[in-house]
Amino acid sequence: MVELYRRTPWWAKVLAIFVIARALTTVMLLVLASVQGENAWTGASPGYFDYATLWDGRWYNIVAGWGYPSELPMTDDGHVAENAWAFMPAYPGIVSALMFLTGLPWGVAAVIVSVVFGLGTALLFYKLMAKVLEPQAALFSVVLLCVAPVSPLMQLAYAESMFLFLIALALYLLLERRYWLLFPVLAVMAFTRPGALAFALALALHVVYRWFTRARDPFPVRERVAAASATVFSGIMGVAWLLIAWAVTGDFSAYTDTELAWRSAYIGYVDLVPFTAWFQGGNWWLHGPLGSVVVAVLILGFAALLFTPIVKRLGVDLRFWIASYALYLLAVFFPQSSTFRLLAPLFPLLGAIALPKSAVYRVAVVIVSLALQLGWLLICWGVDGRDWTPP
């Protein structure tokens, strides 16, 4: 048995991990669907594919079927209302293409696309971790990715699995220093989920680091040009959707006002001021200035985490991405139930969690992850009346 395991290729091991993990999640989803009451999206006890298209899945369906409004919908008090501009076109575009080619309905096609990208993410994640960790730790990193609390997104009608695939591919190309190949990846990434600006910052930090370490790690001119060009391109792509929304609607703040509509249920309609939303959220959730103190502690704690020996094992480039994406979230995101989902692009940190070799530790981490996965589905996915905990 041991010999068979050793002879099994890495991709087959990753495939087996992915299939087992998704089967466990499917059982959870089917049980929860069986007790789901009637809601705005489905009737009572919906089938799997209807249940998999709740929440933002319906918005992506709207984008696929009807596109984007040229005139922004407004609330009764004159503010931009929630609308399709918050949801980028790459994922619904691929699902639409699959529907056209196969005749499949939205729910089935959307789940297939998510599962395929989820498997691609798992395969790429192994290759990425194998560049910085030994093979067994890299493989356990994949286990943690596949059973993570928000891993059900790999089989739901959300763009996250596609986004994680593109991030993993971009990070792999970055570690390989194949900068020109980053261009098409970053272009698609920018129209899948927000995050291209974070990758631009990670690339900028990479360029600066390579410049200052060029004495021991040569940084030839051709690589400088390629890396700097990719950095600029990622920054441009990071604002491309905002500019497209402006061009179509005639409103420069169409995209940002649309995003702000989702936080209005918490703190009302406010202007987008970078690096304030987490403090606003902390004060809202904890009903006072203690929230700002907690947020400050979280920021300092996360910064310190990046310099711990176990995280430093991931290498400087992966830490650049982790720091850049975390800074991006701090700059623009309002913390609420979607926070868990939006933390998913920090998945390279799973490599650090995978390092301890104790079998007891690893089994315990998997069990805790599965329990948290069920908790996330109970709190965020299932709909309970006028639910305020969207995933």
Automatic annotation (TrEMBL):
Keywords: Endoplasmic reticulum, Glycosyltransferase, GPI-anchor biosynthesis, Membrane, Transferase, Transmembrane, Transmembrane helix. It is a multi-pass membrane protein. GO terms for biological process: GPI anchor biosynthetic process. PANTHER family: GPI MANNOSYLTRANSFERASE 2 (PTHR12468:SF2). It comes from Compostimonas suwonensis. This is Mannosyltransferase PIG-V. Pathway: Glycolipid biosynthesis; glycosylphosphatidylinositol-anchor biosynthesis. It is found in: Endoplasmic reticulum membrane. The chain crosses the membrane at residues 12-35, 106-126, 133-150, 182-205, 225-248, 285-308, 320-339, 359-383. GO terms for molecular function: alpha-1,6-mannosyltransferase activity; GPI mannosyltransferase activity. Signal peptide: none annotated. GO terms for cellular component: mannosyltransferase complex; membrane.
